[in-house]
Amino acid sequence: MKVDVLLGLQWGDEGKGKIVDFLSPKYNVVARFQGGPNAGHTLEFDGIKHVLHQIPSGIFRPDIKNVIGNGVVLDPVIFKTEIEALDQYNTNVEANLFISKKTQLILPSHRLLDGAYEKAKGDKKIGSTLKGIGPTYQDKIARVGLRVGDILSDNFKEKYNKLKTKHVEILSYYDFEYDITEYEAQFFEAVEFLKKFKLVDSEYFINNELNANSSILAEGAQGSLLDVDFGSYPYVTSSNTMAAGACTGLGIAPNKIGEVFGIFKAYCTRVGSGPFPTELFDEVGERIQKEGHEFGATTGRPRRCGWIDLPALKYAIMLNGVTQLFMMKADVLNVFEEIKVCTHYKLEDNSITDELPHDLVDQKVEPIYKSFKGWNMSLESTTEYNQFPTELDEYIKFLEKELETPISIVSIGPDRTETILRKV
Ligand code: GDP
Ligand code: IMO
Ligand code: MG
Question: Whose CA is nearest to atom 27 of ligand 1?
Answer without folding.
Answer: 414
